[in-house]
Specification:
alpha+beta; Ribosomal Protein L30, Chain: A; 3 domains; five-stranded mixed sheet; three-stranded antiparallel sheet; 6 helices; about 25% helix; globular
Length: about 280
């Protein structure tokens, strides 16, 4: 979402069904602030929050046009949309009947009561990663010499037998898909983030597989069993219904996180008070 502005509005989807980009193009042409290319981008990457940063008039016009096409949206002031708490990467932990056990960076096990888990969000998500590339080569030294030829003395260069080893290091970024799990709590630290390739699944014991994604799916399944009051994103629901065969993918990290924001908004309507991290 863009930075919050006073009297700025969002269009919030009533459900998470995909929206035909042609429908969005027709709606967007009714206002001057958005163009056809916006419709194409939003249809692929909108997972709950269809548009933000809108004036009240633009929001009403778009909502009416979308409603005529059968797409129901809600106009919500941006300040009412929750933000995600900062994430804390978790590299080891486990699900037990008494609590979710999070192992901190000092190796201490911190129990989290299952009643504090408000959202379990899982899926296959492309993440931007930095890759270091080294190029090795040798720079050859040359030294000036004087050599005689038929026309007298001439200055030339004699290649040295010595070379200096050198290397160039460059950083390149690319997107790599990972199993991603966000566990959102109503107590500090509010959000644990688990990346399948970087997590120790030893708590699984004999259930542990050699395949990281199978371990990841098992972790999410365990989380769902114990966190009975938590909301689930579509990736978590897919794992609950299809088990280890589930591979629900998101087109971007933005889409993955936006769906969590949408769920927190919907889940929070009945709370009557802001999420605790919103007060800090």
């Amino acid at each position: 979402m863009s930075g919050l502005k006073e009297n700025s509005y969002c269009l919030v989807q009533s459900n998470l069904d995909p929206i035909d980009p042609r429908v969005l193009k027709v709606a967007f042409r009714s206002v001057g602030e958005l163009v056809d290319n916006d419709a194409k981008i939003l249809s692929a990457d909108a997972f709950g929050i269809l548009a933000d940063g809108l004036s009240a008039e633009t929001a009403r016009t778009l909502a009416n046009e979308l409603g005529r096409a059968g797409v129901l949206v809600e106009i919500v002031q941006e300040q009412q949309i929750p933000r995600l708490p900062n994430s804390h990467t978790l590299r080891r932990g486990g699900c037990y009947q008494e609590a979710f056990m999070a192992t901190d960076s000092l190796g201490r096990d911190v129990p989290v009561d299952w009643s504090r888990v408000v959202l379990v969000a899982a899926g296959i998500v492309p993440l931007r990663e930095a890759k270091r590339k080294q190029t090795r080569y040798k720079s050859v030294l040359s030294s000036p010499v004087r050599a005689s030829g038929g026309l007298g003395l001439a200055t030339g260069y004699l290649r040295s037998m010595y070379a200096i080893p050198e290397r160039d290091v460059s950083i390149r970024y690319k997107k790599v898909s990972h199993g991603l799990l966000d566990v959102i709590l109503d107590c500090e630290p509010y959000r644990y983030r688990i990346v399948a390739d970087k997590f120790n699944f030893s708590y699984l014991g004999e259930r542990r597989s050699r395949k990281k994604l199978e371990n990841f799916a098992q972790l999410v399944a365990d989380m769902i069993i114990y966190a009975k009051g938590a909301a689930l994103n579509r990736g978590a629901v897919a794992i609950r219904e299809d088990g280890l065969e589930a591979t629900f993918g998101y087109p971007s990290r933005h889409a993955f996180e936006e769906e969590s924001i949408w769920l927190l908004y919907k889940f929070g309507l009945s709370r009557g008070r802001p999420w605790p991290w919103m007060r800090t």
